[in-house]
Amino acid sequence: MKCEDIRKIVVVGAGMMGSQIAQLFAEKGYSVSLVDVSDERVQLGINSIKDRLDKFFVKKGKITQEQADAILAKIKGTTNLEEACKDVDFVVEAVFEDLNLKKDVFKRLDQATPKHTILASNTSSLSITEMAKVTSKPDKVVGTHFFNPVAVMRLVEVVKGLTSDETVNVTMELMKKLGKTPILCKDSPGFVANRVYAGLIQEALWCVYTGVASPKDVDTALKLGYNLPMGPLELMDYTGGWDIALTMSKLYMEEFGPRYAPCPLLFELVRAGYLGKKVGTAGKGIYDYYEEHMKK
User: Is residue 48 annotated as part of the catalytic site, yes or no?
Assistant: First the structure.
């Protein structure tokens, strides 16, 4: 299969990342089926796309309302995975970061999709090889790690597990057609960006935990000192991912050794439910935890 043969896309998972990925494909002219486990979750995904198109595109004069409507018309929401996958060319799995859940999805995708279909995972850290092994076509399984917000972030990590060179080449070309800059990396926990960033997050946490500086000052130092748009602590608070950070840190430690051992403050945040703005104790994160429990 060649990149130009790809016409129909399926995105599995209508959450924050899945809905954004579906929107991106639709913006580029592809027909997209957005799949989730319930009508409610599907509708939430569709509504989030409508809201983003209105807030960030139509109201800012980047596109007309007619163009926004045309993008939405290319996206069909459904709970029927098998029906959506009958004639699909490229699938992006974007469910929660749980390897067993993702493997279950890939088993279903293997049975539901044609032989030529490429199966991609938007995982940020989990093994593409492990997902590929549960299918009958591991050469067609690849990683496509998009970054949030999808409309803004140019990078996509294309991850090669048991993937064939043909699948890799088609995927790389497809990502370029989406306006992204793909990099190719081996199947290793965290791939490139998240693995390197994990070390930055841990050191930032240690600075707070040992009293070197407040979360705000740590973030300010990194933003102004290294020209980062957001500090690592602020970013994790915003994405609501301290529980995910802990899970990934344990995974990296298991694979790479004690240099990735989680900072004790990370355990405290998760146990107390201060997971970030979108989840946790009233949407609280490390900034709140510091003010309420650490500041003297």
Answer: no
